[in-house]
Structure formats: C-alpha cells, structure tokens
Design a protein that fits this description.
Length: about 550
C-alpha cells in the first residue's frame, strides 16, 4: 500500500506543479482549467460557502465529493493528494529524519491546537470573513510557487540565456525571441518565505508536524473521518509487540502502549506501518468490526469553546474601521471582474493564481497596511504594471469565483478606477515640456492633449476624460516621472458587479463612439499643434525614455 500511495502522491504533485507552470499562463489559461486541483480541499469549499452565503458550483461539487469519500475512507486526502504533504514527506525523508532524535515525540495534547484553529476559522466565516494566511495547504503551496519559486526560475532562465549568449550568440538570440521570461516581483516575499519555512521546519520537531498539530484542513478531515470504514488492523499471529510501527507512524496515530489501537482521525493511511515487519498490520474494510480498536479525534468541548472565543476576538481585528479607512487612500484597486468588496473578501483565499498569470505583474498581494481582512488578496499596482486591455486571465484562473470570467469584449467596459493628473508633477503642465507618453499608451483613448495658455505661452497639455477611462493604469506605469507618477489611478468610479453586464447595449455603443471620436480629435489636435509650433517643439519624453 505504501508504494501505491507514493506513486499516487508523486503523480498528483507533478500534475499540480505542471498545471501551475504550464497551464496557468497565456494563452493556455483561457482553454484549460489550471485551477481545478485547488477545488480539492473540502474545508476551503466549506468556509467559502458559509462566508459568501452562496454556492460556487465547481468548488461545491468537488468539496462534497471529497467529504463523502473522507467519511467512508478516512483522511486519504492528506496522505495521497495534498502537495504540501508531499513536500513535507520529501524533506523528512532526506533532511529532517537525519536531524531529528529517534525518540522525539511531540506531546499528543498539542494536536488540539488544530481543532482550535479550525473552530476559529469557522466562526470567522459565519460573519463573512476568511483568513487566507493558513486556511488551506493548497493555497499556501500555490502562493509559495507564485511569489518565490516562479520568480527564481525566471531569473535563472534569464541568466541561462545570457550565459548561452556568451558561448553561442546566434542560439541565444533565437531562444530569447521564443522565450523571453518576465521576472515578476511581489510584495511580502520575505513573509511568504518565512511562513513556508515555519511550516516545513516543523519536521525538525516531528514527522508531519504541520499536518498533525496545526493544519485546520487536517482537523476538518479528522472530524469527518471519525467513522470511516477503512481502518488499520493488526495481524495478531505476526505481531510481536515491538512497537516499531508506532514509532514509524508519521502522524503518531498508533498508541505506543497498545499498538493494536489506532487513532482513526489522525491516520492518513500512508501505509508505513504495513511494511515494518512481515506485514504484521494491514488496512481493511472493517467499519463494523468491533475487534478493530480505534479512537476518534482528541477533541473536547473546551477546545471548541476556545476556538469559538478566539474567532470572536479576531472578528473586530478583521472588521476594524480604523484599518479599513487607512487601507490605501483610494489606491486599493481590484482586478477587473472582481466582485463587490464584501463579497470578494468572502470568496478570495489569497491563493496567488491570478497574480502568477498576470502578464504585466500588475497584480500584487495586499499586506497588513491594506487591512487585516484583505491580507494576501490581489490588488492592481499600476506603478508596477498596468492592466492590459486584451487580457482577462485573472478571472479565468480564480478557483473560488472571487473574480468573474469576463469575455474580452465585456472587459472593455469594466471600470476599475480613474486616472488623475497631478499638474504640479506633469512635465507638460508644470514645465511646458512636450510629453505624449500617457496618451500614446492609453488603449481607451481617454487622454487627449489640449492647447492651453500657460505662463510661457500656448502649450499642449494632457487631460483625462473620466467617463472613458477604465483605470487600467498603463499611463501611470509608463509615466517617465521618477517615484510617484504625474498621472495616478484612484479607485473612484469603479464598477463592480456580482453578475450581469457592466453596461447596457446603448451605453456600450455610446462609449465606443466617444472613444473613436476621442482618437480622431487627438490626431487632429496633434496635427494642428505640429503646424502651429513647427519643428521647434522638441519632444522631451522621447529622449528621456530612450
């Protein structure tokens, strides 16, 4: 059984990583559901359903299926399918097992911690709040891959191309033309790495320390598996009571004093115990067999009360108005298609799938300054990257429906903010220097240049039409001013809908017509300006950018 489990675990892990790196990208993310494996955690589906007061069908169907299988067969998810568990097993096999004392065993009463955490998360979800930090081992894994592993691999790819260029320039140029990796950088990398280091470093104290003592998903599955029929049975004729199986069990589910007794809620059915000595134990279908002694979760009423009290005490932190007001000074810009904020926070688990697939690196995780309840949820940071007009990948990979899947035609009418020009920083307004960058990069023709009277005479300056601006942030990204850009996107005017179209048919036609007219008017203005000023008006921005 152990070999079968290792093979399945390896295949699932490879599928998980392959889907992340090869399917969660442009253009495969439009046609392949790269996020499908994130549906597998039933605890996440349970919390999202409670918090959002609604069913996200793909998540609900998968969660219910895993719950039913867990009730029947026990915690097979932890032993066979969890990618974080696979990483922990690998590190334990080749690293921590050599560092850890053979007789070291974490006190069993520490197992109750995960039940307290689980109860606290359930109470928070009842009030519409999720806590993405440790809610799900799957999202923790994708977040780590997104924010640390993927950037490192891209940096290595760039360096390898440069090294190849030194040896064979022609081959390097050909590779660079086909594969030109963007090196994404994210906020909170140190925090993410530190959290993963703590999770994996638990192996120093005990095998599967995270799974047995901290993981709330493990606690949820432990409760569900209390009456599972797939159980470990000791073959009394071959058992010599050596206790080797109890010592080898990675989750300490076997009682050292009575090795025939198994804590069925802790057992992850890894099969290690079955290969210790001449098959002295095996797994059988024996739910009704009273000769198989088992125990349930080490859970008492006081643990549930402690968890509920902890969740209620955390609730004011999540809903603190002071934190909400200082979130971003109008700069918390959600990706296009994001649900209204309260609904968005009740569905987003901060998995990082949308951030990884973003082609411009515009999506960044929220940090503590954005509010505790928003931690690790995505926001658009235009200074890092703008939201491209012909891209709706973030909605296509969101596993919980926090970001809607939008057709490209519909995305044109989604407004996530409005650009505002700071005339004191703008080269054209403040210094009478010709700069056409914001107008040139705007895909919505929301920026026009007008000839106005200034202290130095008549000059062309940019103006923003609020009704045409979608808040994509490309103008802010490409603004040549250092530090804070002269044109900044704020979230006012954002249009966020839970369902339906973002504009009626006649509104769409009117917007498209205005954008066409704006483009024509801009060309006429530029032509007139060139005729009036002649060749003497040198372009400061062109020379600056080059």
């Amino acid at each position: 059984m152990r070999k079968t489990r290792i093979i399945i675990q390896l295949l699932v892990f490879v599928a998980f990583v392959s889907a992340f790196f090869f399917l969660n990208r442009n253009p495969t993310a439009y046609s392949w559901q790269s996020e499908v494996l994130l549906y597998a955690n039933p605890f996440t589906g349970f919390l999202v359903t409670i918090a959002s007061r609604s069913f996200f069908l793909p998540l609900a169907i998968t969660a219910v299926s895993i719950i039913v299988l867990t009730v029947v067969f026990g915690r097979f998810f932890c032993g066979f399918f969890c990618p974080l568990g696979a990483i922990i097993d690998f590190l334990d096999r080749f690293l921590f097992a050599k560092m850890r004392s053979a007789g070291r065993r974490v006190p069993r009463y520490f197992r109750r911690i995960k039940y307290v955490i689980m109860t606290a998360l359930i109470v928070l979800s009842l009030f519409g709040s999720l806590f993405p930090l440790i809610i799900d081992p799957l999202t923790m894994t994708t977040r780590f891959l997104t924010m640390i592993v993927n950037p490192v691999l891209n940096i290595l790819g760039v360096d390898l191309i440069k090294i190849a260029g030194l040896a064979v320039p022609s081959v390097s140029a050909k590779i660079a033309s086909v594969y030109s990796p963007l090196v994404p950088l994210y906020y909170g990398v140190i925090l993410t790495g530190g959290l993963m280091l703590l999770v994996l470093g638990g192996g120093f104290w005990g095998k599967r320390f995270w799974c047995g003592y901290i993981c709330p998903t493990g606690a949820f599955l432990a409760v569900l598996s209390r009456y599972s029929i797939f159980r470990r049975k000791v073959v009394t004729d071959k058992c010599s009571s050596c206790s080797r199986c109890a010592k080898a069990c990675p989750v300490e589910a076997i009682d050292l004093k009575n090795i025939s007794k198994t804590n069925i809620s802790e057992c992850i059915e890894c099969g290690v115990c079955t290969e210790i000595k001449e098959s002295c134990s095996r797994f059988v279908i024996g739910g009704a067999d009273k000769m198989i002694p088992v125990t349930g979760p080490d859970l008492q009423k006081r643990h549930l009360i402690a968890g509920a009290a902890g969740g209620l005490l955390l609730l004011p932190v999540f809903r603190a108005t002071a934190i909400s007001k200082r979130d971003d000074h109008g700069r918390l810009i959600r990706p296009p298609g994001a649900l209204p904020e309260e609904k968005f926070l009740s569905r987003c688990t901060g998995c990082g799938e949308c951030m990884k697939v973003c082609p411009t690196n515009a999506l960044q995780p929220c940090m503590f300054t954005d509010g505790f309840s928003r931690f690790y949820t995505p926001k658009v940071v235009p200074r890092v990257g703008g939201c491209e007009e012909k891209c709706s990948l973030c909605g296509n990979v969101c596993p919980n429906g926090a970001i809607r899947k939008l057709p490209l035609e519909e995305k044109k009418f989604v407004k996530i903010g409005t650009a505002v020009i700071d005339r004191h920083r703008c080269l054209a307004w403040a210094q009478n220097r010709e700069c056409l960058v914001c107008d040139e990069v705007c895909p919505y023709n929301a920026i026009e240049f007008k000839i106005v009277d200034t202290t130095k005479g008549r000059f062309k300056v940019p103006v923003v039409y609020e009704d045409l601006c979608a808040g994509c942030g490309l103008c802010e990204q490409h603004c040549p001013i250092f530090d804070t850009a002269a044109i900044v996107v704020y979230k006012f005017g954002e249009n966020r809908r839970e369902s339906g179209e973002y504009a009626s048919r006649w509104q769409k036609e009117a917007i498209l017509e205005r954008r066409r007219k704006s483009d024509s008017a801009n060309l006429e203005e530029e032509s007139a300006a060139e005729d009036e000023f002649g060749a003497s008006g040198s372009s400061f921005s062109d020379g600056f950018l080059e």
